Amino acid sequence: MVTNPLDDAPLSRFHKKLAVFSSGGPFLDGFVLSIIGVAMIQIADQWGLSSVEQGLVGASSLIGILLGAFAGGWLTDRFGREVLFTVDLIAIAAFSVAQFFVQDVIWLIVLRLLIGMAVGADYPIATSLLTEFTPRKYRGPFLGAFVAMWFVGAAAAYVVGQILAETGNDNAWRWMLASATVPAVLIVVARVGTPESPRWLVGKGRIDEANKVLRKVFGPGVSVADLPVEDENSVSVKELVRSGYGKRMAFITLFWTCSIVPLFAVYAFAPAILSALKLEEDAAHIGSAVITILFLVGCIIALFLVNRMGRRPLLIHSFLWAGLALLLMGVFPEAPTSIIMVFFAAYAVLIGGTQILQWVYPNELFPTEIRGTAVGMASSLSRIGAAVGTFLVPLSLSGLGIGATMLIAAVITLLGAVLSHFWAPETRGLSLTESASLGVASSPVSPARASQS
């Protein structure tokens, strides 16, 4: 393996700070998507919102994230990472404040859409900057931590929502929605001064600026001559499907969708769902926070199992047992509170395998030339399913009831297990080149070969 001063640099204080500040985006993603579920109880009562209107409010941020991810990727390649690294969070803060003054549901939907676009834009901006500075040994763990920060943000939202709800103020929901301003501003302040990516600067012909950044971050002896040569070939969506990777694209999109449709719906309306399951309002909010922490625990456990169990078994078992937990909630919606919480907690922990594999599988199953295109396409398509699922939750709760709603969520999750059984390859123990090969990755790796990795 060829070494160079950038890819094999020791982990520095700069890298650690950049990782923390970059993770502010997924933290805010989890926060803004979850806080609306707590606020919705009061909003729906005060404004007399219909189920359709509640669904639109809940789904608008998800639609915004889908649009923002596309726009953010284009903007960061065109105008650079440094400026947009703070501008997008300033937008989140501004739109969050604006929610405090909103007077009708249409403007609330618009503002939630704009917040979602700013949150979605931060993903390609922050991950590009982090990836282009981080030594190769730490890129995986640092990018994997993005999943964990989403759940931290969601848990924080439920705690903040509960504290504000207990004030009894009629405008508590306004303070809830505006509360995202605080972490957004803090992250902006922390990000100020982050240098531009030297790789992007070189691509724009700004060599002197790139050398200045490299000397500041990596030391006086490092220059653009030490930057590794990168393959910048791109592949269109049509070429991606025609190249023979269409089935893999379908697999990743479908399993990702089956994983996040129930999960995002639960996050957006967790307090309402738990209330429908006969939990008191305070217990519903606290229960939402506890369950969110358990989602984080599930992801951490899955990170330890992904190389021990293998990708394919972890994915199938995660879908299967999480789906059974939802099935039990649907079959026994009148069970005692303690039993309901056990079922919900089991789902939260067991679904962790599908969550981390949303980032592992796409990067292992596609070659370098089309990896970015494939990951972006799968992420966007799965967000469509998440937005539809979030929109339909209040309609299902009011029209079908909590039992049927949980049964639908169980069917979607179990469908993920079936799809994974037939389509999921095993990539444990394979090199990145081997796992991306159409001929090799379709067959599970043998235990003997896996042990050699």
From TrEMBL:
<keyword id="KW-0812">Transmembrane</keyword>
<feature type="transmembrane region" description="Helical">
    <location>
        <begin position="83"/>
        <end position="102"/>
    </location>
</feature>
<keyword id="KW-0472">Membrane</keyword>
<feature type="domain" description="Major facilitator superfamily (MFS) profile">
    <location>
        <begin position="18"/>
        <end position="428"/>
    </location>
</feature>
<feature type="transmembrane region" description="Helical">
    <location>
        <begin position="56"/>
        <end position="76"/>
    </location>
</feature>
<dbReference type="InterPro" id="IPR005829">
    <property type="entry name" value="Sugar_transporter_CS"/>
</dbReference>
<dbReference type="Pfam" id="PF00083">
    <property type="entry name" value="Sugar_tr"/>
</dbReference>
<feature type="transmembrane region" description="Helical">
    <location>
        <begin position="172"/>
        <end position="190"/>
    </location>
</feature>
<feature type="transmembrane region" description="Helical">
    <location>
        <begin position="373"/>
        <end position="393"/>
    </location>
</feature>
<protein>
    <submittedName>
        <fullName>MFS transporter</fullName>
    </submittedName>
</protein>
<feature type="transmembrane region" description="Helical">
    <location>
        <begin position="250"/>
        <end position="274"/>
    </location>
</feature>
<feature type="transmembrane region" description="Helical">
    <location>
        <begin position="314"/>
        <end position="332"/>
    </location>
</feature>
<feature type="transmembrane region" description="Helical">
    <location>
        <begin position="108"/>
        <end position="130"/>
    </location>
</feature>
<dbReference type="InterPro" id="IPR005828">
    <property type="entry name" value="MFS_sugar_transport-like"/>
</dbReference>
<keyword id="KW-1133">Transmembrane helix</keyword>
<feature type="transmembrane region" description="Helical">
    <location>
        <begin position="399"/>
        <end position="424"/>
    </location>
</feature>
<feature type="transmembrane region" description="Helical">
    <location>
        <begin position="18"/>
        <end position="44"/>
    </location>
</feature>
<feature type="transmembrane region" description="Helical">
    <location>
        <begin position="142"/>
        <end position="160"/>
    </location>
</feature>
<dbReference type="InterPro" id="IPR036259">
    <property type="entry name" value="MFS_trans_sf"/>
</dbReference>
<feature type="transmembrane region" description="Helical">
    <location>
        <begin position="286"/>
        <end position="307"/>
    </location>
</feature>
<feature type="transmembrane region" description="Helical">
    <location>
        <begin position="338"/>
        <end position="361"/>
    </location>
</feature>
<keyword id="KW-0813">Transport</keyword>
<dbReference type="InterPro" id="IPR020846">
    <property type="entry name" value="MFS_dom"/>
</dbReference>
